[in-house]
Amino acid sequence: MPTLPKISVNIPIKPESDIKTVISSLKKIKYPPEQTEIIIVEGNQIARQRNLALKKSKGEIIYLLDNDSAVKSTAFEIIASEFKKSAVAAVGGPSLTKKDKNSLSFVIACALETYFGAMRMRLRYSSQKMAEAGSEYHLIGANLALRKKIVKKLGGFNEKIMPNEETELLRRIKKAGYKLVYKKELSIYRQQRKSIWDLANQFHHYGIGRMKQIVYNGSFEDVIFFVPIIFVLYLFSLLFYDPVWYSAPLLLYLGLSFATSLKATLKYKQFGLLFTLPLIFPVIHISYALGLQHEIIRRIFLKKQSETRQPKLKVKTLYLQDLS
């Protein structure tokens, strides 16, 4: 019987982050303990943290998780099985949210699993069935396994991109001819943001990261990301120009928002979604667009960021057999 590949779990955390959720779930993993290790890197620059964890990892496969990622007990078995195929360089699955129907987290999760809410990225947040061939839009850095030798061959994570450092790497992997695999069975559970303000900050941050990725490794398909920018500019123009016909794009947006909310309401039999989801969608879309615009403006007026001394990162290695 062939030896199972060694898997190095890489967890970047902010200083003093709580890692109980991810560690508790890793204790239940069904996999030979001697073929696993957990590398935790503390800091505030996630791409640097990922690169240092990559350097310290002894496994053939690195598995990216966050401090709040609750993995399934079969996760490592699924990963090992997929990496038997030599062409596979990355395997990932969705980040799901437990459906507590009385929480904001539930409403956000419902929004993100719809096409209107997150478009191609919706597969990151739902267990919808699809072909196993994946792309950077389907895989999420809080639940992503990578073949280490390929990541190192391609230069690791771009430390000038944060966030989106993992999606930019996935794009390079795909361009190099390797296969990305989406497995809905390889799911984790995480909570969504606890306030509207936190949600807005999250997607503003994502928008900044996406624009950085476009700058460093853009492609023609990235034109779609300028649609949110145009829509926000259109909303602003409504303050100065408002003939009846000019309201058509806004009415279309509101109609799609209502139709999507109605579909989710019927799916979950939760009447409140009909009123809460239409409030969540614009927060996601406008915050993302403002993040994209933020990075464009920063690059126009501050063409070069000042170099600052990078603080030393803290590394800790754990082993499953030592967890109690």
What is the compact description of this entry?
The protein has helices spanning 20-26, 46-56, 75-82, 104-112, 115-118, 148-153, 165-175, 196-217, 226-237, 248-268, 273-301; strands at 7-13, 36-42, 61-65, 70-71, 88-92, 95-96, 143-147, 179-182, 188-189, 314-318.
Notes on the protein architecture:
The protein is an alpha/beta fold and 324 residues long. The chain folds into 2 domains: 7-99 and 121-191 and 309-322, Spore Coat Polysaccharide Biosynthesis Protein SpsA, Chain A; 196-301, no CATH class. Helices cover 43% and strands 14% of the residues. The strands form 2 sheets. Strands 8-5-7-3-1-2-10 form a 7-stranded mixed sheet, with helices on both faces. Strands 4-9-6 form a 3-stranded mixed sheet. The radius of gyration is 21 Å and the shape is globular. The two termini are 29 Å apart.
Keywords:
324 residues, alpha/beta, Spore Coat Polysaccharide Biosynthesis Protein SpsA, Chain A, 7-stranded mixed sheet, 3-stranded mixed sheet, 10 strands, 43% helix, 14% strand
